[in-house]
Amino acid sequence: MKTFISSLLLLFSFNTFAAPKSELWSYWNVSNEKNATTISHQYWQQTLDKYLITRGEFTLFDYAHVTDADERTLNSYLRQMSRIDPREYKKSEQYAYWVNLYNALTVKLILMDYPIESITKLGGLFSFGPWDEEIITVAGKALTLNDIEHRILRPIWNDPRTHYAVNCASLGCPNLQPKAFTARNSDKLLDKAATEFINSDKGVLIKEENVQLSSIYDWFAIDFGSQQQLFEHLKKYRPELKPFKGDIRYDYNWKLNQQ
To answer: Where would I find the DUF547 domain in this sequence (predicted)?
Structure first.
């Protein structure tokens, strides 16, 4: 009976997992382009510097060895970000703010329940991960990870490269970048992240009779356009790719991106 229930829950989770739509939360679509102030992401950078490790095509996070002091540093960063009203800053500052906040919150969620096998194990009984849980308050609004990605980042910036920037703590996800995003480096970091992912097996795996793509390109097909437009996007970062007319398969590894 226990095995049946576990199997039923797993089936429920995977069958009901669907990428949320990009739906603008207009409250956040405000900026002050005259504000030259920058937002400091120093504490987040310190965390990345100490705990990111590269292994082949994967950038892993060393959750097991995060010290209490360094977890307090991460908590301090999140408190600082929660006290900021990003609407008072330029859009370029906002983009970096939201990406870093998303990634830092994800690491915090893993640390709170570590050790775990996958981020999908977090959340309620019938939840597939923690993405719909309200986990931080910014400018008086309680936010979920899905709010940040699908109601703020995607609809405001309309940049498919955002999918390479936000990290879901899984091996199948585009790597967590070793540099915190800033207004100055965001565009270069996005291109770097796209290049790394599209040239990795977890992004685009060429086989004899078919191509295996990350499920990201299936879940968020609306952001990448038609199949022709998608392959034009992929070819931009992997020029040797040729037009493909065979079967396309999709895959994603939800195992934790741990060292």
So the answer is: 87-198
- pTM of the predicted model, to two decimals? 0.93
Q: Which of 31, 30, 41 is nearest to 181 (CA)?
A: 41
Structural domain spans, the chain: 21-251
Backbone φ and ψ for 221, nearest 5 degrees, come out as -55, -30
Number of Cβ atoms within 10 Å of the Cβ of 243: 9
Q: Which residues contact 112 (CB under 8 A, 6 or more apart)?
A: none
DSSP result, 123-152: SSTT-SSSTTS--EEETTEEE-HHIIIIII
Q: Give the whole-angstrom CA distance, residue 212 versus residue 37.
A: 44
Please list, in sequence order, all residues whose beta carbon lies within 8 angstroms of the beta carbon of residue 145, skipping any fewer than 6 positions away.
102, 105, 106, 130, 131, 132, 133, 135
Task: Report the number of secondary-structure helices (H) and strands (E) in the chain.
Answer: 10, 7
Q: Give the burial string for 134-150 (b: 16+ CB within 10 Å, else e).
A: ebbebeeeebbbbbbbb
Q: How far is the C-alpha of 203 from the C-alpha of 213, rounded, in Å?
A: 6
| Nearest-angstrom CA–CA distance, 67 and 63 | 9
Rounded Cα gap, residues 72 and 174, in angstroms: 26
Type of residue found at 186: S
Q: What is the pLDDT of residue 7?
A: 42
The pLDDT tens digits for 85-110 are 999 999 999 999 999 999 999 999 99
